[in-house]
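R.M. (postdoc): so does anyone remember the format we settled on? I'll just put the structure tokens first.
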């Protein structure tokens, strides 16, 4: 009954939004947990600029950054039900509802950011996009989120043995919980916005994320040890409520898709610049950044793959990812 209610709400919203005269402006709401100026926020803003230009002002986008509309778990439900039209979120929270998203979230599945780009821009990315539609979402784009590494307030981590007993915040995803456990540490899933105070008060010892998040969320102030284990290179996903997308004319659907595709190049450019800037800023603030014995981390991931890649569809996807050179 709830599923039907959500579908009905989405359809009613779409009807309200899109049965307007061609000259009227429709303002779409988009959510992001990150602060204004962050590369994902700016990527969606750029999408909105292109959309406004290419539809002669009929559509525009208001980006609600800094978790103004809630944390990712909340906004995923908002966009699925049609309360908001657009959302930029991490792919990991979808692991329970879109099984194909498990593969990009696997530790060390990608060998580099360039490898991730080739995979997500190709047939594997298309297959993952298609898997979102049955849950009421259309994927417009995959955005960069760089590589994620562990950081903490206690000590440098150079080997797997150094992880023992430390408590880390992770994304609310079983893969991330199991990955952390496989390394001998304790995982504490919690919303992104609670991480700073939790490290500061000792509820957790650290977290794992990319340099721009480590910098802009000010985690560098409370966790000075950043270790370059680079366990995941997890793309972000920019989604639209399917009922709203389906209510567009075929011509406007193409405009939306092309504007999103064009925003990817812009977002990647912004991401690369921000990563360099944030790493430099972290070092300036006294962060100790160290390399790790990465092969040990990679070897520890076998039980994670054994548990999460039992489905033949996912096994084939893993093979397809690894075949991309």
């Amino acid at each position: 009954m709830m599923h039907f209610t959500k579908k009905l709400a989405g359809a009613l919203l779409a009807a309200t939004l899109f049965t307007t005269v061609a000259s009227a402006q429709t303002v779409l709401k988009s959510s992001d947990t990150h602060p204004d100026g962050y590369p994902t926020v700016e990527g969606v803003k750029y999408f909105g600029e292109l959309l406004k230009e290419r539809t002669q002002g009929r559509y525009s986008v208001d980006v609600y950054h800094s978790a103004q509309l809630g944390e990712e778990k909340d906004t995923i439900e908002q966009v699925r039900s049609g309360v908001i039209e657009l959302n930029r979120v991490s792919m990991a929270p979808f692991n329970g509802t879109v099984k194909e998203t498990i593969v990009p979230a696997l530790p060390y599945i990608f060998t580099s950011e360039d490898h991730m780009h080739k995979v997500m821009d190709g047939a594997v990315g298309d297959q993952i996009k298609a898997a979102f539609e049955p849950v009421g979402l259309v994927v417009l784009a995959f955005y960069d989120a760089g590589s994620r590494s562990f950081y903490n307030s206690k000590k440098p981590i150079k080997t797997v043995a150094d992880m023992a007993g430390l408590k880390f915040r992770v994304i609310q995803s079983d893969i991330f919980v199991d990955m952390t456990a496989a390394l001998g540490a304790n995982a504490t899933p919690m919303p992104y916005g609670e991480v700073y105070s939790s490290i500061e008060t000792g509820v957790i010892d650290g977290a794992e994320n990319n340099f721009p998040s480590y910098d802009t969320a000010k985690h560098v102030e409370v966790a000075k040890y950043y270790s370059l284990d680079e366990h995941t290179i997890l793309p972000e996903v920019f989604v639209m409520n399917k009922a709203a997308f389906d209510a567009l004319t075929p011509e406007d659907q193409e405009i939306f898709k092309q504007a999103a595709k064009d925003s990817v190049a812009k977002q990647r450019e912004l991401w690369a610049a921000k990563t360099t800037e944030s790493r430099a800023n972290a070092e300036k603030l006294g962060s100790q950044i160290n390399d790790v014995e990465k092969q040990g981390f990679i070897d520890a991931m076998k039980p994670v793959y054994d548990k999460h890649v039992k489905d033949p569809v996912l096994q084939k996807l893993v093979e397809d990812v690894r075949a991309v050179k």
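R.M.: ...and that's the designed sequence above, right after the tokens. Also worth knowing: The longest helix spans residues 250-284. The chain has a mean pLDDT of 93.
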